[in-house]
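Run log, item B.
One chain of 108 residues. Sequence copied directly from the ordering sheet:
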Amino acid sequence: MQEVVWREIVDRYLQEIRALADTAKQGELVGDLMRKKIRKCLIELHASGAEAKDIREIFSCLEIQARAIYPVSEPRFFQLLTAARSHAEFLLFIEENCKSCARSDGKV
């Protein structure tokens, strides 16, 4: 049940990233906007109960699923999608390291 909710959250942000790809085609810089959307997506996923392993699983399948839905003729979208997945992994890595550092310092 939760997986369906998580998928809906990610799909909504995927639509926003696709719109950013259209903006990028016009020469606009969209990297910061994409990273902001991914950060919001992760916050929403965490709020709905997703753990880091769940989020990694969702994002690892994202590009494969997007290729089935969207035409391959949108290279900018897939570049943004790859960057989005990398940024999500980076944010999860930072979060986990902060938690492990807090535990090793005796802080919770």
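Observations after the first pass:
- The chain has four helices and no strands.
- Helices lie at 2-25, 31-47, 52-69, 75-104.
Flagged for discussion on Thursday.
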